[in-house]
Structures are given as structure tokens and as C-alpha cells.
Amino acid sequence: MKIERLVKMANDISDFFNAESDKEVATEGVKSHIMRAWEPRMRQAIIAYYQESGDGLSELAKAAVARLT
Questions:
Q1: How far apart are CA 1 and CA 17, in angstroms?
Q2: How far is C-alpha 22 from the geometric centre of its chain's CA atoms?
Q3: Which of 6, 25, 47, 53 is deepest in the core (most CB within 10 A)?
Q4: Helix 40-52 with 3-17: angle, nearest 10 deg
Q5: What pTM was computed for the model?
Q6: Cβ distance 31 to 67 under 8 Å?
Q7: 58 by DSSP, 3-state: which?
Q8: Rounded (10°) CA dihedral 38, 39, 44, 45
Q9: 6-38 pLDDT tens trace
Q10: Whole-angstrom Cα distance, residue 49 to residue 33?
């Protein structure tokens, strides 16, 4: 899967959880969703991308992906 697609997916998930006023809960929600719904190769790819630069990831997506490492 192309990294652009994974970035869009992570940002879409973050947009959903961004409605949560408690950003700690929102971050955990994004992290949990990625852990539950994404296959290991997808998770590994987004983690590697985050560690390289993370360009294009929303702040909430970055915070959640950081917790996956």
C-alpha cells in the first residue's frame, strides 16, 4: 500500500477522534484503532514514515503513531 494512502487513512481516523475534547483519549483512540484495524505491514510502514519525517500527518495522527513505536 502506498504511504500516501496510509497517511490519508491515519488523518481520517484522527479527524474522527479529534471531536474528543480530551486529546489524551483521542490519541489513544487513534492508536487503538490502528492497532485493531491495520495489518502489521501497514503499521510498520506508517511507523517508519513517521520516524523519517511524518510529513502530512496531522498532529493527532503523529501523536498516535509515536505511541505505536
A1: 23
A2: 17
A3: 6
A4: 90
A5: 0.94
A6: yes
A7: coil
A8: -70
A9: 999 999 999 999 999 999 999 999 999 999 999
A10: 18
